[in-house]
UniProtKB/TrEMBL annotation:
InterPro entries: DnaJ_homolog_subfam-C_membr-28. This is DnaJ homologue subfamily C member 28 conserved domain-containing protein. It comes from Subtercola lobariae. Residues 48-114 form the DnaJ homologue subfamily C member 28 conserved domain. Pfam families: DJC28_CD.
């Protein structure tokens, strides 16, 4: 039994080969030098460095976003919630934060929301909800910035909505009439081609 070699575990050998490509050997240890006189860690570091250099020569790192620009937020103090703030800014998420700030941003975009409303009743509901939230935010005692967003006069806003709506209808009707005149001036083949392009 003295001259007998210990049996190797084939599963362990396969796992070692899949992880680092090593072939089991009785003489080889982790710190032993490879053929080129380097340890495995040095060989891996050299391989990574060569791969990076080749990618640089190919231009794989050219035109990356942020290339040549200074790092942002270096002048600011450390904020443990920096990633939340960046996510909110990048994704343009609304509805978060104190009511005073959310109402200001909503006030700036309220005309567009009103223009998207289909009826006068829907406009009045939007304005009533907006005014109620402003009044509720003024009554809150939690602190935060003061609410300086003014309430909107419902009747005046409905009149402005009607005027914008009438202007949109007039512009659409004018565009429709101009298009009809252009089509009337064309030959039947040109009209057919133009209608295909419009569709």
């Amino acid at each position: 039994m003295v001259g007998k070699k210990p049996r190797s575990d084939s599963r362990l050998n396969v796992a070692r080969y899949q992880v680092d490509g090593s072939v089991p050997s009785e003489e080889q240890t982790e710190n032993e030098a490879d053929v080129a006189g380097q340890t495995r860690m040095e060989a891996r570091a050299q391989f990574v460095e060569i791969s990076i250099q080749q990618a640089m020569r190919r231009g794989d790192f050219d035109n990356l976003p942020g290339a040549g620009k200074p790092l942002t937020n270096l002048h600011q103090t450390y904020d443990p919630d920096w990633w939340i703030r960046q996510k909110i800014e990048r994704e343009n998420i609304t509805g978060l934060g104190p009511p005073a700030l959310t109402l200001r941003t909503e006030n700036a975009a309220l005309d567009a929301r009103l223009d998207a409303a289909a009826s006068e009743h829907a406009v009045r509901e939007l304005l009533a909800d907006f005014n109620a939230r402003i009044i509720e935010a003024r009554r809150q005692l939690k602190g935060g910035p003061p609410v300086i967003t003014p309430t909107r006069d419902v009747d005046a806003e409905v009149e402005r909505w009607r005027g914008r709506r009438a202007a949109r209808f007039e512009a659409a009707e004018g565009a429709r009439e101009r298009r009809a005149e252009e089509l009337a001036a064309m030959t039947w083949r040109q009209r057919r081609r133009a209608r295909r392009e419009d569709a």
